[in-house]
């Protein structure tokens, strides 16, 4: 016998004020008895502290107690029998009840995960193993709580030179110099791309590539200490090779849905984002370290990091 959950929305995206609707599909070669079919909704903020980002005491905790957002169980069918063949059982369950806490948007991070699951259990008693199926669905912010789109989006002007870098550079970069200017989004709707432009005004050393890195900054309250860790989400190449000087290069980066969410500043945890404009200059060292840590400054790299506020708009 097999059991499957099928939601009526193919994208599985729901708002907290909406009902979760779908059907349970049961396939059995023969009729079976059961002691009830139950559907459970579970939503939680799961946090973990890894040893590399915490002290010895905090590392012992490992996983921090989850923050429960929603947990409810309803009986879809009472005890009875399921006939042979394919049986489809529709369901509709309200997600948010009056007085429920805030529903955070679905997010899959390195140390923080906000996840919503629907589980169906067919109870078969002590002599038989219960049948179960689980599916993740995605929560977006309620439309009533959304911001109006910023018109125009908030932008920040940046410039990158040898004097703005706090780490050692190649001698030829320090002596010859370089200057890259531009503007990029500092506040961005999740429905819109990170946009902007940059101009390479001068560079004594040929440029290998220009990339935009998107980082998440996850903070977790452990006891009286806040443990913060930054991790790379994605890297998008803006330019390849030694680009022409004084030519405007557009910035257009699509945000990944499950790996981003509106910026969250809650008490027990926070989820923030930042972007880094990274310029890689031509050097033999680049070939020797093709897979170096993107967060570690290198002699052949110049970068500028800018905080990014993500919001959900109508």
Automatic annotation (TrEMBL):
<dbReference type="Pfam" id="PF03643">
    <property type="entry name" value="Vps26"/>
</dbReference>
<dbReference type="InterPro" id="IPR014756">
    <property type="entry name" value="Ig_E-set"/>
</dbReference>
<protein>
    <recommendedName>
        <fullName>Down syndrome critical region protein 3-like</fullName>
    </recommendedName>
</protein>
<comment type="similarity">
    <text>Belongs to the VPS26 family.</text>
</comment>
<dbReference type="InterPro" id="IPR028934">
    <property type="entry name" value="Vps26-related"/>
</dbReference>
<dbReference type="InterPro" id="IPR014752">
    <property type="entry name" value="Arrestin-like_C"/>
</dbReference>
